[in-house]
Design a protein that fits this description.
- The complex is a heterodimer of chains A (549) and B (372).
- Chain A has 549 residues and is mainly β.
- Chain A has five helices and 41 strands.
- In chain A, strands 16, 17, 18, 19 and 20 form a five-stranded antiparallel sheet that branches. In chain A, strands 34-33-38-39-41 form a five-stranded antiparallel sheet, with no helix packed on it. Chain A has a four-stranded antiparallel sheet with strand order 3-31-30-29, with no helix packed on it.
- In chain A, a hairpin with an 8-residue loop joins strand 4 and strand 5.
- Helices cover 77% and strands 0% of the residues of chain B.
- Chain B is built from 22 helices and no strands.
- Chain B is elongated, with a radius of gyration of 31 Å.
- The two termini of chain B are 37 Å apart.
- The chains are: A mainly beta (549), B mainly alpha (372).
Chain lengths: 549, 372
């Protein structure tokens, strides 16, 4: 952290591990030179306000998190029927930044083989997962156009294996994520798609104001589920799994086993319509149950502008809850998991009515930034429309993030330390400097990423790195419990983004931790008397200590 | 401008009855030749052969210069032809012959009004006791208070007439504006002027200016009614619920009998997740103005927030007994479904969801304008 260029110098007081003062220091790490080129136009082509994702992952396994940033592209004006988006121009490349030991970053995009994201692709998001279980995290980049699967060769380079793998998707993809829906030990891939929009049929709305059109102006479309065949190829099982049975306007996706049946379920946030909760039936099929489960609409029964989603346990009851970011005049949704496959809407009880009704949220995370043992809430915020203040002076385009601490299951705003409003979109979470305190990287349209380094404190922590053996190597889908807290292993987070796959837990003043891992294989592993303040690799035992199912 | 106020077609729409009136008397008192032309004119008018009718009625007036109905009929046909200037001479002549003829006054009033001579039209319309047209003329002439009175009278006779409703609204609005303009021009530093300015800014969605004006009004007269409520609305629109609560609470203190203030306060508390406090205020609103569906719905939400499922069920069920097909009813069904689901009453929850979906027509309503 000392190596990072400090932008603010506000004194932090630390009292018994609890922070007083801003939680983050906004830094501009040396070498992290990136501008998210979304190319806004007066014609308000919808794609231009939607990128871009960020991934925090350790691509070279040196123990330091690296940063991958998805870029948009150049939008021609007027927009031709076929725009190549100039992705061959370095200005519009996606970028991989390797973190150096001194906290600076080096742009390794070209040497890693990630330059030029393909003509005709306008970048959106990124997913991270070791789909071939070789120990090196792979990248899946979504776009308007064709998506790209980059295989990590383990030598610092990646290879575009999209054609062989058969995962190009097409159309307009948004958030994506790796998960193992059939518990066969191989990561499958879920890709959300927004709508049937294309450059030939772009239009603007709002008359003289020129606004992005509401999603209802374009036909809904299907999401895609790819099954990992284990030989470097995937099979599109969207139809036979039931995923394609419902069309939507999806932007975000989250994975967790909400009903404890041992199979990972999927929550999809849809824009301007009901949300989807795909229950994993355990036989390769899914049933969309959001309405009957109580996780589809607002408490008034109204459909919402679902954008980002996080599928984690905010109240430490061991069950994953769902939080969805929305537009202003809506309230970010909190669907509390009541057990028994049922959710209840708790946005008002949790204080989100006060915190969110005037804001637009994109990426969202539930992380314990204070290491208190209770997860806090972070939302990257900005309105969709750059001219929204002209139309409605009570709203604004640029915004600062929402950071709220969880006090008795009611979120209360705390000082993030971020004072510069930006057009935030993606956000990913992880411990960039391995100091035991969760950091954040936020993407901003037309701007540089915001790197928020946690100022830290005295509380204890434990970070767990899962190493699956029978389960997928990343351990995605595992339920990990530490001293009464629960996390569901996934790197998929918020909107278009991928967090550090390691699971972080704040321990407060606890000097020891009890760790329980329920692996996707069904193996239940318990580690007692674990020392705090370490990154602990937990390897899935070959033989089960205790089977739960 | 006149045609913008009232179309000629609308104004002449009531003349068929008068035509019958003319026929009856024409056949009794005219010479056979004049009666023949009168009958021919009426027949031509019915067939909308206006030029023929004009010719026939002219002959009547030439044969019977003291027969007022001949001139009235001629004027009427000119009006039907939208030749309002031509209508005036025969109608004025009719009034010379028969000064108290209501149809002549009415038609002349129409003709004058349509041509923009509202002040000249008014005495004729007064004599004809045509309150609708009189009200329209008075709006034109700037006699707004009188217009409101006459249009209210017209509305009592024609309660569902869109034209009357429209002009009454216009007259009231203009009267209100006139009064406010006088206030702001004459007493710019008064609390009421600042309140009025605040209301103007509120309508224009210039909330910082609205807030400033309301604040100034309250500084000048802390007890002035409604300003707290209006300021609360400014804060509620900007999602500043704590400030909205403060203002609604102040309004409720000033006007403990104001049900809307209690309701708004309850809503502001509800938005902040303060279920118990919200419920107290909403119960008070319900007591002051019982069985308002909006209050009952919010009461259900507040009860649910507090974990009082029985009360929530009671409130929403009561709402459904008052209105069963509205969007609010759909929301009540949705709330009941969530409540029953939480209680493990799957069948009851499904039943409520079915009702919810039926009221939505198989879909779900949108909430906010997406992406704009």
């Amino acid at each position: 952290m000392n190596s990072l260029l400090r932008i603010s110098s506000i004194i932090t007081l630390v009292l018994g591990g609890a922070l007083v003062g801003p939680v983050f220091e906004v830094v501009q790490p040396r070498g992290l030179n990136f501008t998210l080129e979304n190319s806004p136009t007066p014609q308000k082509h919808l794609i231009e306000t939607m990128p871009g994702g960020v991934a925090l992952f350790d691509y070279n396994n040196d123990g330091l998190l690296d940063i991958f940033l998805v870029n948009g592209g150049r939008i021609s004006s007027p927009l031709p029927a076929q725009d190549d988006f100039d992705r061959h121009d370095p200005r519009y490349w996606n970028r991989l930044f390797r973190q150096n030991k001194d906290g600076s970053f080096t742009d390794v995009t070209e040497q890693a083989g990630l330059a030029n994201a393909g003509d005709g692709n306008y970048g959106m998001g990124v997913a991270v997962g070791d789909y071939d279980n070789d120990g090196y995290p792979d990248l899946y980049v979504t776009s308007y156009g064709k998506n790209i699967l980059y295989h990590n060769n383990g030598d610092g380079t990646f290879t575009d294996v999209t054609a062989k793998a058969g995962v190009a998707a097409g159309g307009w993809s948004e958030s994506a994520g790796f998960f193992d829906y059939d518990n066969d030990g191989k990561l499958d891939l879920f890709v959300t798609r927004y709508m049937e929009w294309d450059t030939k049929h772009s239009k603007d709305c709002g008359g003289n104001f020129h606004t992005y059109c509401p999603p209802e102006e374009f036909p809904a479309t299907t999401n895609i589920l790819y099954h990992n065949n284990g030989d470097g190829t995937f099979t599109d099982v969207s139809q036979r799994s039931g995923i394609a049975a419902k069309k939507g306007r999806a932007l975000g996706v989250g994975f967790a086993d909400y009903d404890g049946d041992g199979f990972t379920d999927i929550f999809v946030s849809n824009d301007g319509m009901q949300q989807y909760l795909y229950h994993n039936n355990g036989n390769g099929t899914f049933s969309e149950v959001a309405l009957e489960a109580g996780a589809a609409l607002s408490d008034n029964g109204r459909r919402m502008s679902g954008m980002g989603v996080v599928f984690q346990d905010y109240d430490n009851d061991g069950r994953p809850d769902i939080m969805v970011t929305l537009l202003p005049r809506e309230i970010y949704s909190v669907y509390h998991n009541d057990g028994g496959g049922s959710f209840s809407y708790r946005s008002l009880e949790t204080g989100l009515g006060v915190l969110s009704s005037g804001s637009s949220g994109w990426s969202i995370g539930l992380e314990d930034f204070e290491n208190s043992g209770i997860k806090d809430l972070f939302v990257a915020q900005s309105h969709v429309l750059d001219n929204v203040a002209v139309i409605d002076p009570s709203l604004h385009y640029l915004d600062v993030p929402l950071l709220a601490t969880n006090r008795s299951n009611r979120f209360e705003r705390i000082d993030s330390g971020v004072t510069t409003p930006v057009a935030a979109r993606g956000a990913a979470f992880g411990d960039l400097n391995n100091d035991g305190w969760q950091d954040v990287v936020v993407t901003a349209l037309g701007g540089h990423p915001q790197v928020l380094m946690n100022r830290g404190g005295k509380a204890h922590w434990l970070t767990i790195s899962l190493r699956g053996t029978r389960s997928n190597r990343d351990g995605y889908g595992a339920r990990v419990q530490v001293n009464g807290q629960t996390r569901f292993a996934t790197s998929t987070v918020g909107y278009l983004s991928a967090s550090d796959k390691r699971l972080h837990f704040g321990l407060g003043t606890a000097e020891k931790a009890k760790v329980e891992v329920l692996w996707p294989s069904g193996i239940h592993q318990i580690l007692d008397e674990v020392h705090p303040d370490q990154v602990l690799e937990v390897r899935e035992p070959e033989l089960s200590e205790k089977k739960q199912r | 401008m006149i045609s913008g106020l009232m179309s000629a077609g609308a104004m002449v729409s009531g003349l068929a009855i008068r035509a019958v009136f003319v026929v009856t008397f024409a056949t009794l008192s005219l010479s056979p030749e004049a009666a023949q032309h009168m009958q021919a004119g009426i027949a031509a008018d019915k067939q909308r052969q206006f030029d023929v009718a004009v010719t026939e009625f002219k002959k009547v007036t030439e044969l019977e210069p003291s027969f007022a109905d001949g001139f009235i009929s001629l004027g009427q046909v000119y009006i039907e032809k939208h030749e309002f200037g031509s209508a005036m001479q025969p109608l004025k002549h009719a009034l010379e012959v028969s000064p108290d003829s209501a149809p002549a006054h009415q038609l002349l009033g129409y003709a004058l009004l349509i041509q923009g001579f509202a002040s000249q039209a008014i005495p004729h319309l007064e004599k004809a006791q045509d309150k609708t047209a009189l009200g329209v003329a008075q709006i034109q002439a700037g006699q707004l208070a009188e217009a409101v009175v006459n249009l209210q009278g017209a509305l009592a006779v024609h309660p569902n007439d869109p034209d009357v409703l429209f002009y009454l609204g216009r007259a009231s609005g203009l009267l209100s504006k006139q009064s406010i303009d006088t206030l702001i021009a004459g007493y710019p530093d008064s609390a009421r002027a600042h309140q009025a300015m605040g209301e103007n800014y509120f309508v224009l969605r210039q909330m910082p200016d609205a807030e400033k004006e309301y604040r100034e009004a309250l500084r000048l007269r802390p007890d002035v009614p409604e300003v707290h409520m209006e300021l609360g609305e400014v804060y509620a629109g900007a999602f500043q619920w704590d400030k909205a609560e403060e203002e609604f609470r102040a309004q409720s203190k000033l006007q403990p009998g104001n049900a809307e203030a209690a309701y708004r306060l309850g809503e502001a508390l509800l938005a902040q997740g303060k279920g118990h406090e919200a419920r107290v205020e909403l119960l008070r609103a319900d007591k002051l103005l019982p069985d308002m569906p909006e209050t009952l719905y919010s009461l259900g939400k507040a009860a649910s927030l507090e974990g009082d499922s029985a009360a929530a069920e009671k409130d929403w069920t009561k709402l459904l007994s008052i209105e069963s097909e509205s969007p609010l009813a759909a929301q009540a069904h949705f709330g009941l479904a969530a409540l029953y689901r939480k209680q493990g009453k799957t069948a009851a929850a499904q039943e409520q969801m079915q009702e919810f979906q039926r009221l939505q027509g198989g879909s779900t309503p949108s909430q906010a304008p997406a992406k704009q």
